Amino acid sequence: MGRPRLTIGSFGEVTTRVLPSGRIEARTRYRDWDGRSRIVQATAVTAKAAERALKHKLAGRSELQPASGTGHLTPDSPFGDLVAYWLQDIDLEGRISKTTRILYERNMRTLVLPVFEHLTLREIGVARCDRFIKEQARISYNRAKQSRVVLRLALELAVRHEVLPANPMHHVSRVHRESRMPDALTSVEVNAIRAVITRWESGVDHVSGPRPDGQLGAIVEVMLGTSARIGEVLAIRRRDIDVTGLTPTIRIAGTIISRHGEPTFRQDHPKTAKSRRIVALPSYTAEAVRRRLAVTGDPDPESLVFCSREGTPLTTANVRRQLRHVLERAGIGGVTPHLFRRTVATAVNNNASVELAAELLGHTDTKITVQHYIQRRELVNPVTAELLERAFRRDED
User: Fold this and answer.
1) Any idea where the Tyr recombinase domain is (predicted)?
2) pTM higher than 0.90
3) Taking Cα atoms as reference points, which of 96, 148, 240, 184 lies closest to residue 369?
4) 297 against 126, higher pLDDT
5) Domain ranges, ordered by start, for the chain
6) Could you tell me the sign of the dihedral formed by the alpha carbons of 375, 376, 377, 383, in that order?
7) Neighbour-count burial of 356, counting CB atoms closer than 10 A to its CB (0-12 exposed, 13-18 middle, 19+ buried)
8) Residue 268 DSSP SS3
């Protein structure tokens, strides 16, 4: 009889021997994830210490091997083991941003793992997943959507590595969201917001603390003139601006990222890499940018147009908070930076086309623009009355 075949990740009999140096060597055969058996050894001053060192070394090799149906993960593995390997696999691929990686792990650990952690992989079927997602949807649509994404991705990994025959999340019913018409500001409301910010920046009602530096008004004008996200606006550098040519432009080429425990920084592409775009500016935005450049006076092309007094990036949270504080003092509520983005999209759609609105917003699909950014007009084009008049005019007696 030959030696028993090792399974992947297992090792054979441990043998020891005394080396010429007097140290003890412990060695064994170990079957790696690629199916090949290799000799692994470790040395120490005593036999027991050498065996402990060898087992520690084997444990390190085990952590590096991928999960597979014949390796660490089996249908009887606990769901938590799959989560751990799924996160390792994400890091190994390196395809998603660090921000998305953090979001995935947070959603998995806070939303999904508490429900599934005591289950084995074979116990996670369509019915259980479907019920879970529906229970999450009763709390909120976003909670259900975030849970669905990470649970589907983790189970898909188990399918790819032949641990599960199919992904139960593929058969879970869709989560439906109540349709909501995107809101948008009117020109009267926009000018009222401008007036409030101008009064605040003039210092008329200033009591204590640092005086307004004039950035908030300019930030709003850039959002109204470009439809850019607040993070994209705060990431604009001097080199991204051309207000001297016949057609003033701003290049949207980055965004501001704030992560817990890390300094805020500028990312060298917008929300998506495909969102890079050069936007022609209306006169009110070009004038606001010129004034801001005159105030900063920093000739460095890499310097941020909107920044702290120390030249560091502003956080999107602080700008949102300041905008809300200024407007609520004047009795104007519900205004967010994203509302300006929807307002611009609606105006461009109403006066041109949804395709142009999508291009301005940096969308590759007009469906997103229509569903989330454009306020639908209830008034149907009056030309329909003329068309029907010609089609069904009453015969004269």
Assistant:
1) 180-393
2) no
3) 184
4) 126
5) 15-64, 79-171, 189-334
6) positive
7) middle
8) coil
- Please state which of the four CATH numbers 1.20.1250.20, 3.30.360.10, 1.10.443.10, 1.10.3470.10 is assigned to the domain occupying 189-334: 1.10.443.10
Strand 241-242 relative to strand 249-252: parallel, antiparallel, unpaired? antiparallel
Which helix (H) or strand (E) covers residue 252, if one does? strand 249-252
Residue pair 155/75 in contact by the 8 Å Cβ criterion: no
Q: What is the dihedral of CA 198, 202, 208, 211, to 10 degrees?
A: 90
Beta strands in 82-125 (DSSP E): none
Dist CA 136 CA 144 (whole Å): 5
79-171: CATH topology = DNA polymerase; domain 1 (1.10.150)
Q: What is the mean pLDDT of the chain?
A: 88
Residue in the block written with tokens 């205004």? 335
pLDDT bracket for residue 1 (50, 70, 90): very low
Cβ–Cβ < 8 Å for 321, 270: no
Do residues 158 and 82 touch, judged by C-beta distance below 8 A?
Answer: yes
Name the DSSP class of 176. P
Q: Which residue has the tokens 């976003």?
A: 142
The Cβ-side half-sphere exposure at 85, using a 13 Å CA radius, reads 24
Q: Are 240 and 278 in contact (CB under 8 A)?
A: no
Residue pair 25/41 in contact (Cβ under 8 Å)? The answer is yes
